[in-house]
Amino acid sequence: MPIGREQIEQIYEQVVRRNPGELEFHQAVKEVLETLTPVLTKYPQFAEHKIIQRICEPERQIIFRVPWQDDRGEVQINRGFRVQFNSVLGPYKGGLRFHPSVLLGTIKFLGFEQIFKNALTGMPIGGAKGGSDFDPKGRSDDEVMRFCQSFMTELHRHLGEYTDVPAGDIGVGAREIGYLFGQYKRMTNRYESAVLTGKSPHWGGALVRKEATGYGAVYFVDEMLKTRGESFEGKVCVVSGSGNVAIYTIEKILELGGRVVACSDSGGVIYHERGIDLDTVKQLKEVERKRISVYADLHKDAKYIPGGSVWDIPCQVAMPSATQNELDGDAARRLVTNGCIAVGEGANMPTTPEGVRIFQEAKILYAPGKAANAGGVATSALEMQQNASRDAWSFEHTERRLHEIMTEIHRACYETSVEFGSPGNYVLGANIVGFTRVAEAMVAFGLI
Ligand code: NDP
Ligand code: 2IT
Q: Which CATH superfamily includes the segment(s) 60-191?
């Protein structure tokens, strides 16, 4: 018996009841479930095997205490998480987020999204996410190292190149991955390169992994623009955030001939009409770990807007690259009114459901994160591939693979949107492609 909208609603209600207060997780589940009715009509076996109900329940959730000592000798206690959501397509794979706002529900929403994103890449990786409410801001390297060592002392027993392979996310970059890898190696007495990705290229990291999420998101938007005979050439763009994803989004937009006039951090917005100077942003954020406000001290013609919103700045292409729910209905309306024609999500779930509805009603090009930002995890899978064969590919070769993967994800999402009667609806396309790949494997594996 195929199941209809009403039963999907009941499954969603059950998810809400079983996961009280986890609003971001509810939001991510709802967005996926809303698009699945036609899939269940086409593949009745998915309902019979209760695939949706099973997919919404993580295979395993690990929550642990992370005690460590700060530089003054004071004891600090954080909470660590790893949600191993789904492993039918490969070992659990997904980043670690270190940010004071992290709760179990945050990690669950990210892990849930990761299942479908990873399936979209076509690479053999399952879905997971982890992290901690640890705040690396203002902490010394030594403090970050002690925190990472304590975090890994517990987490190592749940990881392995065939089991679970974390990487970075907000607050976790090459520095943190280095400390985590060092502690894993020490605890296990194994140089197991493929247990973490996002490593430095000097010891097993893939070239292009650092750039991959931003580059990939721009490639995806470029593919969308092509469907309307457009390109980045000469387009005015705004990018939110100024972290890893934002920086390499800006870099690729510039390479493709666009002009980025604004970026931000949690303190405020930099507006630089003649174009953001990327070297300054890299120096401030990657080297000095400073606030973006300092940019305006270095470029007198740039303006710093404390507490401002990048979405107030008129643009043709918007690339949210900071965090979840950073672009709400009002911001979406402003973007549309100001002439924005394309939105590509470098971040995970940055647009609220109302914002998404506004973009879709305005018929502008809109790429959901699980498709647009899949280049990061796809390149992580390329890193695992290189580690497994003890090889190291050139920058050019790896970037070409990334480009091919993003083009293929776009093609699959677009063609699926056409097949299911909603041409250009990338939300529907991405959810259906990702879900179907996971669901088919789940049916094939029996009741596990
Ligand atoms: P970074 O830590 O490098 O940068 C995060 C940026 O977003 C910073 O500018 C930060 O400002 C801002 N930001 C973070 N949290 C908030 C918040 N609560 N409110 C306002 N601003 C905030 O992280 P990434 O660039 O790696 O990640 C950015 C987004 O991309 C996230 O949604 C992540 O899940 C997603 N993503 C990342 C991938 C990766 O490979 N790294 C892959 C796919 C998706 P501040 O410094 O002031 O906090
Ligand atoms: O959200 C994401 O896809 C990531 N943070 C990257 C995950 C990974 O394993 O590279």
A: Leucine Dehydrogenase, chain A, domain 1 (3.40.50.10860)
Ligand 2 atom showing the smallest separation from residue 380 Cα: 10
User: Cβ–Cβ contacts within 10 Å for residue 308, how many?
Assistant: 17
Question: What's the length of the chain?
Answer: 448
Q: Hey, where are the domains in the chain?
A: 5-55, 60-191, 210-372
Comparing CA positions, the residue from 30, 43, 32 lying closest to residue 3 is 43
Is 210-372 assigned to CATH 3.20.20.450?
Answer: no
- b/e for 154-169, b at 16 or more Cβ within 10 A? bbbebbbbeebbbbbb
What is the pLDDT, as a whole number, of residue 6? 87
Q: Which residues are catalytic?
A: 129
Any atom of ligand 2 within 6 Å of the Cβ of 437: no
According to DSSP H, which parts of 290-345 are helical? Answer: 294-298, 329-337
Cα 245 to middle of ligand 1, angstroms: 7
C-alpha 147 to ligand 1 mean position (Å): 20
Tell me if 94 CB under 6 Å of ligand 2. Answer: yes
- The encoded tokens of residue 77 equal 């206690």
- Nearest ligand by distance to the CA of 197: 2
Query: Ligand 1: which residues within 6 Å by Cβ?
Result: 99, 101, 168-171, 213, 241-246, 265-267, 321-323, 346-348, 373, 376
pLDDT of 110-158, one tens digit each?
A: 999 999 999 999 999 999 999 999 999 999 999 999 999 999 999 999 9
Which residues of the chain carry a pLDDT beneath 70? Answer: 1-3
Ligand 2 centre to CA of 17 (Å) is 28
| 85 vs 88: CA distance, rounded Å | 10
Which residue do the tokens 């763009």 mark? 237
> Rounded CA gap, 220 and 256, in Å?
13
User: Do the first three CATH levels of 60-191 and 210-372 match, i.e. the same topology?
Assistant: yes
For 207-217, how does the pLDDT look when each residue is reduced to its tens digit (9 = 90+)? 999 999 999 99
- Residue in the structure block whose two tokens are 């750039």: 211
d(CA 93, CA 100): 22
Q: Which residues pair with 128 in a beta bridge?
A: 84
Ligand 1, atom 21, residue with closest C-alpha: 266
Condensed to tens digits (0 to 9), the pLDDT of residues 255-265 reads 999 999 999 99
